[in-house]
Specification:
CATH architecture: Beta Barrel
Order of helices and strands: EEEEEEEHH
CATH topology: Thrombin, subunit H
CATH class: Mainly Beta
Radius of gyration: 17 Å
Shape: globular
Structural class: alpha+beta
Strand content: 35-45%
Number of domains: 1
Number of helices: 2
Strand order of the largest sheet: 2-3-4-7-6-5
Number of strands: 7
């Protein structure tokens, strides 16, 4: 016998639109002397971003964030707070939901205008190819 699932209407309560993007983020725990780590962004908005990493941090951790956004030719430098952690299915990676804590008003406006202009696209554009990401990671590791 099958049970009928209830249908719920869920309203999106996000303040900013998100853009799925393959950009790079450099992050480091605020109180750490370790070298910053490099990861791939899954999506980004004017309020925060999501990225994945093998490193495990507790919720509430403050991170120094440097996110390169090629279409606007800007590196966003801010503090971010981990507000959500999800383990990727069948993987050693964790997805982190980061809320920007100290993103400048100008950077927030620039990023939001860019994402709003892309709103007609369902998945955004992969402005950085995976080959570029690998090449950049190798060059940064060498340099």
């Amino acid at each position: 016998m099958f049970k009928m699932r209830k249908k719920y209407k869920v309203e999106n309560m996000r303040r900013f639109k998100r853009l799925q993007a393959d950009y790079l983020v450099k992050f480091q725990k605020v109180s750490s002397d370790e070298e910053p780590s490099l990861a791939n962004i899954k999506d980004i908005s004017a309020g925060g971003l999501k990225f994945w990493s093998k490193q495990l941090f507790p919720e509430g951790t403050l991170l120094k964030i440097e996110a390169w956004v090629p279409p606007i030719e800007k590196t966003l430098v801010t503090l971010g707070k981990i507000i959500r952690i999800r383990r990727a299915r069948k993987s050693v990676y964790f997805y982190y939901g980061i809320e920007f804590v100290e993103l400048s008003k100008d950077d927030k406006m620039l990023l939001n205008e860019f994402i709003e202009s892309m709103a007609h696209e369902t998945k955004g554009y992969p402005f950085v190819s995976h080959a570029d990401i690998v090449e950049r990671q190798v060059l940064e590791a060498i340099g």
